[in-house]
Design goal:
Elements lengths: L2 H32 L16 H23 L7 H9 L6 E7 L2 E5 L9 H5 L13 E10 L5 E9 H54 L13 H56 L6 H32 L8 E4 H13 L7 E6 L6 E4 L1 H17 L6 E9 L3 E8 L33 H11 L3 E7 L3 E9 L1
Parallel strand pairs: 6-8
Antiparallel strand pairs: 1-2, 1-4, 3-4, 5-7, 8-9, 9-11, 10-11
Protein name: histidine kinase
Enzyme class: transferase
Catalytic activity: ATP + protein L-histidine = ADP + protein N-phospho-L-histidine
């Protein structure tokens, strides 16, 4: 639930809860009012807001029935003050009373109302001139009767509203305090639970940010929320994971940098040491014959060429890794391109020891490539096959295959093969299955790593399949 919707729902819940509690409180107030009656109201709080008026009507009807009965049977009882007092006490409603008029003169009245009575006001009950009763008392009903002596009389049933107003004023402060307490309690409780669902995740976010600030990228947020805070938490968690991954990559780069420096140092030191040794041999006169001199010079040249090749490969790999090497793509027919590559590479090979074959389809296969860079990748793969060939004649097949989405170039040989445990690492820089790093076989150890970088720039893939003593296949996959 989103926070905006949650706050709206909270507002509605506060209104509804307050309304229900106010209804209950009104019943309590009525109970407080009715508790001043002459009878016990225990168990009558459930009557609702109209309990007072219901009791008033009930008592009215009971008293009126008694009066009507006496009017018909024995109206002279209304001259008996003891009887009238008994009749008055039979009503359970407080602040109600009886007044009788005989021949327009007050004959009997309840004590609480006596000071406010006047014959004129009572006799004008049916008119609009009873102003003195408008604010304090109300005449509920009047019943006329005639005594046995032919005296004209009237009996009035009166309620003292002013007394009920005073009772309300006495209790209204309590009611207002209770209302205030109810509103505060309702708002406080609901706000607490709603704010808890908001504040707790925010504290967790703050704690997570603090852990990241300390460098602890393994701290995982424990927030299970479906609102905006939950979305922020998901974004925060994704940021943490990416930051952790970036740091791991950075650490890996640092390790690779150290390994690269160590590898370069080793690969350069070995031929330099050899060159120095042969030069010192020439200087000391060890090469005292033309044959020895030629041997020493050729060895120095070989080592120098090796160093030159190593530096060139290293420079190219560095530019590829830093995206500093420009690529110029053009659309070519891959079949013709592979045939041209095979002819060019074969020109420098000893055909008696190595045979390079192109196996391409007749139908043109058009793709976008950088002609020079891809040729470098193919030459590196071929040179790698030559370095690790067996004593038998090496046959290298370059096969072009095509499907709906991809063009696949397979470079397959019948050489020594690659150990299974080494396959995942052969495209890494300076990796050699022969960990001794001796330069007897030659090469910079960057050939396949450069090929992979070139394929990455082509948005293609490079893969390997190999089996010891049976041969190796390198697959170059291009999107059409």
């Amino acid at each position: 639930m989103y926070i905006k919707r949650k706050l709206k729902l909270t507002y509605v819940m506060i209104l509804i809860t307050s309304f229900l509690l106010l209804i209950c409180l009104s019943n309590v107030f009525i109970a407080l009012t009715e508790s001043n009656s002459k009878y016990d109201l225990t168990g009558k709080l459930g009557k609702g807001n109209f309990a007072f008026f219901t009791e008033l009507v009930t008592e009215n009807n009971k008293l009126l029935q008694k009066v009507n009965s006496e009017v018909l049977t024995n109206p002279d009882n209304f001259l008996n003050h003891d009887y009238l007092l008994q009749l008055e006490n039979s009503s359970n409603m407080k602040y109600t009373g009886i007044v009788t008029l005989i021949n327009d003169k007050i004959d009997y009245s309840s004590n609480f109302i006596r000071k406010d009575l006047s014959e004129d006001a009572l006799t004008s009950f049916n008119s609009n001139s009873n102003d003195q009763f408008k604010k304090k008392i109300i005449i509920l009903w009047k019943q006329d009767f005639t005594t046995s002596n032919k005296d004209k009389g009237s009996i009035y049933y009166i309620i003292d509203i002013d007394s009920y107003k005073k009772l309300f004023k006495q209790n209204v402060l309590i009611v207002m305090v209770l209302i205030l307490i109810i509103l505060m309690a309702t708002n406080g409780i609901i706000t607490y639970f709603v704010s808890k669902s908001i504040v707790k995740p925010l504290k967790e976010l703050d704690k997570g940010a603090g852990e990241i600030l300390k460098g602890n990228l393994n701290y995982k947020l424990d927030i299970d929320s479906k609102d905006e805070i939950g979305e922020v938490a998901e974004t925060f968690e994704e940021m943490r994971l990416r930051l952790k991954e970036s740091l791991e990559i950075q650490n890996q780069y640092e390790e690779n940098r150290k390994e690269l420096i160590a590898s370069i140092s080793h690969d350069l030191k070995t031929p330099i040491t050899s060159i120095k040794g042969y030069i010192e041999g020439i200087k000391d006169g060890v090469a005292d014959t033309p044959d020895k001199m030629e041997k020493y010079v050729n060895t120095i040249l070989t080592k120098a060429n090796y160093m030159d090749s190593l530096i060139n490969d290293l420079f190219l790999y560095s530019k590829l890794e830093l995206n500093k090497e420009p690529f110029k793509f053009q659309t070519v027919d891959m079949n013709i391109y592979i045939q041209d590559c095979v002819e060019e590479i074969s020109f420098d090979l000893d055909q008696s020891k190595v045979e390079l074959i192109a196996d391409v389809p007749q139908k043109p296969t058009l793709i976008d490539i950088d002609v020079q860079k891809l040729k470098r990748a193919i030459m590196n793969i071929v040179e790698n096959s030559i370095k690790y060939r067996t004593d038998n004649k090496l046959i290298i097949n370059i096969v072009v295959k095509s499907n709906n989405d991809l063009v696949i170039v397979e470079i397959r040989d019948n050489g020594k093969g690659i150990p299974k445990e080494a396959l995942p690492y052969i495209f890494e820089r300076f990796y050699r299955a022969d960990t001794s790093r001796e330069t007897v076989i030659g090469g910079s150890g960057l050939g396949l790593a450069i090929a992979k970088k070139i394929m990455d720039e082509h948005s293609g893939k490079i893969a390997v399949s190999s089996e010891l003593n049976k041969g190796t296949s390198i697959f170059l996959s291009f999107k059409k």
